[in-house]
Design goal:
Length: about 210
């Protein structure tokens, strides 16, 4: 249940982030940024040469917050805080984005099989002329996966719009031996850090 008088803008298309905000009682309106490269994007999400994964997610998250704040000003919308987030799955320094197709999803999951990887999620809130952000780093241990199990998972369609080609809250939960860090951060929105940021803008979640 949403808390009265505590509304924000959520600049994200992720249904997981919507669910997680609802879980802590935050009322929000969607503020969608352009993400289609064919039609132009509001934020350049390409990795820059020599850019570390940590710097990458923080830069992209900050840019999303700036773009969301600009949209509020340009559209003359009510002045509410804008919440954004960005998640990267990282294996051996390699940033794994969303797979382009089933073959790439198979390759990503094969690479993650039996290994530990990091999930970095940056979250930011923009409003009142400032942007505040935080970064969470979680470590996920995958079990060893067989090719048939990877193929069956990919055929569900679940991996195709997920960073690293898996959803921890979905079928892939059966692949995960251990997590060190924030479960909600791996889903895409670290709730502890989100609550701290919102409190700094006068929005108490509980």
């Amino acid at each position: 249940m949403a808390l009265p008088g505590k509304k924000i803008y959520l600049a994200s298309r992720s249904p997981r982030r919507r669910e997680l905000l609802g879980q802590i009682g935050v009322s929000f309106e969607l503020l969608l940024l352009r993400e289609d490269p064919a039609r132009g994007t509001d934020v350049d999400e390409s990795v820059r040469p020599g850019e570390s994964p940590h710097d990458y997610v923080m830069r992209v998250c900050h840019a999303k917050a700036e773009a969301g704040s600009q949209h509020v000003q340009q559209r003359r919308l009510p002045q509410l805080p804008v919440l954004v987030a960005d998640t990267a799955v990282v294996l051996g320094g390699r940033i794994m984005g969303k797979p382009a197709n089933r073959e790439e999803a198979m390759e990503m999951l094969s690479a993650l099989s039996g290994k530990r990887h990091e999930v970095l999620t940056a979250v930011a809130v923009a409003g009142m002329g400032r942007i505040e952000q935080k970064l969470t780093v979680s470590v996920v241990q995958f079990c060893a996966l067989t090719e048939p199990s990877i193929r069956r998972y990919v055929m569900t369609g679940e991996p195709l719009d997920k960073a690293g080609a898996y959803a921890i809250q979905g079928h892939a939960a059966a692949f995960i031996e251990k997590i060190e860090g924030s479960y909600s951060g791996v889903m895409g929105l670290p709730l502890y850090e989100t609550a701290e940021l919102l409190a700094s803008f006068g929005i108490e979640v509980l």
